[in-house]
Amino acid sequence: MSNPEQPPFRRAVIALNGGPADERIVRLAAELARPSRAELVAVHVVEIDWTLPLDADVAGRSDEAQRVLDEAEAVAEQVHYKIEPVLLQARDVAAALVDEASERRADLLLIGLSYKTRFGGDFAIGRTVPYVLKNAPCAVWVVREPIVEEQQ
Amino acid sequence: MIGGRRPLQGRKPGDRRVVVPRPHSPYFRYTGPGQLTARAAASGPLTARERTWATIRRVLIGPPLASEAEIGERLSKKKALAIFSSDAISSSAYATEEILRVLILGGAAALAFGLHVSIAIALLLIVVAISYRQVCIAYPTGGGSYSVSKANFGRLASLVAASALLIDYVMTVAVSTSSAVEQITSAIPELTDVRVVIGVSAITLITIGNLRGLRESGNIFALPTYLFLGSALLMIGLGAYRILVNGEHGSFSPDLIRQAQETAQPLGPLLLVRAFAAGSVALTGTEAIATGVRAFKPPEARNAATTLAVMAGLLGVLFIGITFLAVNFGITHIDLPERQTVVAQVAARVYGNNSVPFFLFQAFTALLLFLAANTSFNAFPRLAAILAEDGFMPRHFSFRGDRLAFTFGVVVLGAVAASLVAVAGGETHLLIPLYAVGVFIDFTISQAGMVKHWWTRRSPGWRRRLPINATGCVLTAIVAVVVTAAKAPPSLLVLLLIPVLVSIMLLIHGEYEAQTRELHVREDAILPGPHREQRVIIPVNGINRAVVQAVNFGRTIATDVRAIFVTEDTEEGDRLRHRWERQLPNVPLVIVESPYRALVGPVVAYLDVLDAAWPPDKEAPINVVVLPEFVARHWWDRLLYNQSARRLKSALIGREHTVVADVPYRREH
User: How far apart are CA B214 and CA B216, in angstroms?
Assistant: First the structure.
């Protein structure tokens, strides 16, 4: 059992995908990190397909990729907390997130999950979250978006 | 490879990732496709001088605020009453004194008429307040006389209203500050000799406070009004009790009666009219609520109208009450042995001279008057900014400074008001004649605008509302004439100043309009690429790295590139030619011998000659004068270098078909 005196984490990696969950997890992470002044690293990974070299200048030229991190920084500023934004290019988003968290010795990885359903109505969790849950060496918190009831 | 970064190896053999640099991050934030928002670092100082100035500004006015930090707080009626009414309510601190100063000329007995005069002014206040309630209802977005007259009468009337308002705001600062200082010196006479210093320092502090982005919505600003109201109403209650129940009365000092008899004028209607004109200063600030309707909580118009009624009622009670006490206690202004205001004497009489409540009352009065001065620091820059946006004032009046305040307007208001206080020697009485004139002109224009508003729109209730504003308009017009005549000749200065300001504004507007017309590009025009030929002229002082860099730059923008060397020494010219032809063979060098040792003149004359030699049937080319410039490392280096380039630049700016391009050469270490 964990010691209640200890802070929940000292360094957390926040995985951002540019979706509506980003703002929620940045706010949540900032509030949780504040008491222990934990370090927050916001990571956005741009997936590069095999037709391009891994170091092709894709994310650097993408306003959208930069905007994801800039907006996260703006949200953190609103709640008066500092985050370190990191932009990555990789072949696989999930592996890059796990590697980044591992290399930075993060003790928490926060990842957002939007509520989507497959054809047929089953909940679709995608492939990033399961990979992270299976491979991340640190604790993983998955923050799922609230289910929006469709208006009848 | 991005930024020279190598891919990082992950935990599994195939998992590699690359960190993408984000060089924009410290300075900009992406807010949309192709859209960046500058961060504080991008607006930061670049040079050592700018850094020093930024540090000074940071200490004085605080760190810069982003536009999104602006608070659009809505005010409750209680808070709005305190904040918007400080100007009007504070005028009760000096209005009685102004009446008594006039009436004393009719002898001590005439002072008894002070009460009648103040009741007449209170009646006028009721009419003005009822008229302005209509403005609140008709213009829920804020009905300053500028916007009312602009909507109903057009440009000229609105500019007259704006000029009168600007004068009014400046006078509010000067009069309120002077009066506040007089309240302080009435309590502590030892400070009388330094009253101008106190006044100017107070205005400086208020200016700095406003440059820091002082917000009037804080509770701290509501406090002085309520402290003054409480202590003044208590004073009136206690004083009235002593007069009406205890039968306590005062008498004027024998000296005063003797002086009054010596200078007595017959108590005729003229003296009463003059006293009325003097006391009408009590109405100043009544329009503030109508101007600030937007700041109220919803329903804005109704809340503003209610607050206006309460304010008028309070002002009436205070003004009549203070005059009643002054008349019955036999108080008028005294200048000797030491200057003490009427309201201070009344407080001394009721609360006891040099008692704690007396000092508290004086402190509250001074605080309220400083707050009244502060209200103009909110209104003046805002009006100036609106005028600047409409093109009637220089554009820098509409630029917001580091702390979101209209810096230029704040500084101009502070400087003008402080100068007025200094010129008047801190004497409120000397400033008053300039004050009420503009206010009543404003009232009249605003009410006339409302009459036109009801007449043309004929909105529900117009038959009832139109006569109210018409009455207000006629009455305030009469008072404007009376006040101007009674306070002449100083009051005529305002009448002179208004057309001067209007003319200046029209002149500025004409200039901006001409510039807009000149720069206008038709919206349907498809703009072709450049079609005029370009030639490059490079004034040189020899061959050096800065010159070579300038020549290379010139070659990138035109094929016709030539260097010009102005010298008084032909041998030096020959030496340079030899070297030039060897080292820069494709760039012609023109050597101009200057026996009169001039540099700028021959270069400009050479350009004229080139232009004159151009075939008249061809469109004139663009002369690009490329100036090699050595970048100095220190401020004192600048004295040593580039003086000729600077002179040349100022001579060429504005020259037809000429572009000046600086090519800076920076030291590598």
Answer: 7
